[in-house]
Write a structure and sequence with these properties.
Layout lengths: L9 E7 L6 E3 L13 E6 L18 E2 L21 H26 L1 H11 L1
Amino acid sequence: MGMEVGLPLALYIEATREGHEPITFGPNSTLVNFGDSWILHTVTDLDSSGIGHVENVVRSERSPVSKVRDRSRLVKVTNTKPAISLLYFGKIVFAFTLLFLIGAMFTLALEYLPVFISFVNSSV
């Protein structure tokens, strides 16, 4: 079952229920079963009147949300980007180096503050 040629691309999926605000699912969202009486709509360029505005949109097909029973067909999405990269590690090392350099500068400034004060007083 592939996409039919000529069908408009879906912008988002919207779940609606009488007396509730519509819930929109974007392209990277995980669909959630909110229970019975929720209706899913696929919103395309042709019938889009803005996210959350379902009153003026006429849809020909409505299908109630069914419970997911077969979990073997669900596709597990994995993050291919590593959690800790070399750039991330380098930024942490740079931050600690900068932190210690600023600390050393303040320590030296406080250590030589009495000498500087006596120099200023003697030259006045």
